[in-house]
Amino acid sequence: MQILKEHAKPYRREIFFSILAVMVMAGASLWQPRLLQQVMKAIIADNQHQVLTNGIALITLAVIGLIAGVINTIFAAKVSQGIAADLRANQYRKIQSFSYGNIEKFSAGNLVVRMTNDVNQIQQLVMMFLQTLTRIPILFVGAFILALITLPRLWWIVILMVILIVLSSQVVFKQMGKYFAKIQKLIDQTNTLAKESLQGVRVVKSFNQEENETARFTANSDELARVNTTIGYLFSTMIPMFMLISYVAIGASVWFVGHGVVAHPDDLAAITSFISYLMQIFFAIMIGGMMSTFASRGFVSLGRIKAVFETTPDVTYAPDAPEVDLSGDVTFNQVSFTYPGDTQPALADISFQIKAGEMIGIVGATGSGKTTLAQLIPRLYDPTTGDVLVGGVNLKKINEQSLRQAVAFVLQRAILFSGKISDNLRQGKSDATLADFQRAADIAQAAEFVNRYEDGFDHLVEERSANFSGGQKQRLSIARGVVGAPKILILDDSTSALDARSEKRVQEALDQELAGTTKIVIAEKISSVLHADRIFVLDEGRLVGVGPHHELLATSPIYREIYETQKAKGGDN
Ligand SMILES: Nc1ncnc2c1ncn2[C@@H]1O[C@H](COP(=O)(O)OP(=O)(O)OP(=O)(O)O)[C@@H](O)[C@H]1O
């Protein structure tokens, strides 16, 4: 609720006018039956003048109600859209401050839902609150009091009707709330299923899984239809049931008024407005109940958004750290790292020093901790214990901008953003020139295919970079890594989709063009790092060997084993 309050603050004026308009609307609806009563009285008394003036007053009241309704909708829309836009922007800003670990904990897809679907729910909740929820209590209390004033001797009918409708609505809305929660869950599941199978369409097709996927999706969709139908049944029994209660109340009122009309002749004019108030009470309870059921969905979304705002970023940068030009030295001092929620450490007690300009290869079995080690250098995570230093400065005391300029990390899975190739390369250097692009593309062996496009670096990257092959994506991703001439370049198995010739060319170009850059190359194939100054061998999170290839062959049994296995498999070692 606090979040909603904070985000509503800038719209105080609009909220005031919207609530004022709601009050006018409710007042107009409540006054209409009173005026109608006057009209009836005048008709019975055959007072044409009174009929006319009250008739005109009735129309004026209807027009006022209409204008108030329009004003309310305009302001309510302004407030709800404004709050939704601010919530989206602030959530996005907050997520930008998250560490990689924070994002992984939520999952990227889940955060997208919180920024889109959940914000939409809040927008609807605010709109509903300003349009209906504020009107319902006024309407209910007003109609209740006016019904009692209009026909005081039938007070017990009003109270009995309210009790019966409230009690039965409690039962129905409670049931409905449960089904709404189920629907939300099923919608989430249906979205995930559709997204997964469409994104993985190549796997689905190549493994002939269309039927299985369709069956899974259909089962979910059928369940969604079933729950929706049940809600429909509940609605279709609820409304006639409430109508029945109110019609019995109306019938009883007419009967009692009819029987007492001789003693109370004024009741004849009052009965129409009394019935109108009964109907208003009935609608207020019904709409109020329905709205609060819908509102509960909004509160679930509010809770999910709150969780984002209340998350403290795992990695924060020292605000007063000066921006400096860091060297390419990297030091690990007794570093251990355990992923949040895991019990086993992914890295255990790792210490080493890398001198600026060195080329380091990192090898080890799958899951041995290579990527984890590399991720600590650009500070995607902080070590659980120990220290990581870049350019001699502890990462905990480093300026973020300085670190970003010094370290480029080319990921195992090449990810490009939709837009132009040049937009993607500029992520590595915001003021990069065409010459920078060309040089980077030459190093990454991307120039040969980029230059084939008529529009060159302006060529468009489609969503999920579907218009590029795996190898092309890797080349562009390497180009983005090298375009800013970083002090430290980390390549996490980023040439795996390149043919041996291209991979060799990339290595040669890196050696020549980025001679002063520290290069940390994670490789599945030892052949990719044979020429490294030193190779680090990881085994179950421990650094079990350090040295050049020939030395390791003699000193590290694990390295020798990996090398022999790859050689036996007919690798190009
Ligand atoms: N985000 C994560 N959350 C929890 N555990 C993780 C996470 N990422 C990796 N791990 C675990 O940490 C260990 C090291 O993983 P890491 O990805 O660093 O290995 P790797 O040597 O790079 O493997 P590969 O060669 O397959 O890429 C593995 O046991 C892995 O399951």
TrEMBL record:
Keywords: ATP-binding, Membrane, Nucleotide-binding, Transmembrane, Transmembrane helix. CDD domains: ABC_6TM_Tm287_like. It is found in: Cell membrane. Pfam families: ABC_membrane (PF00664), ABC_tran (PF00005). Residues 330-565 form the ABC transporter domain. Residues 16-297 form the ABC transmembrane type-1 domain. This is ABC transporter ATP-binding protein. It comes from Leuconostoc holzapfelii.
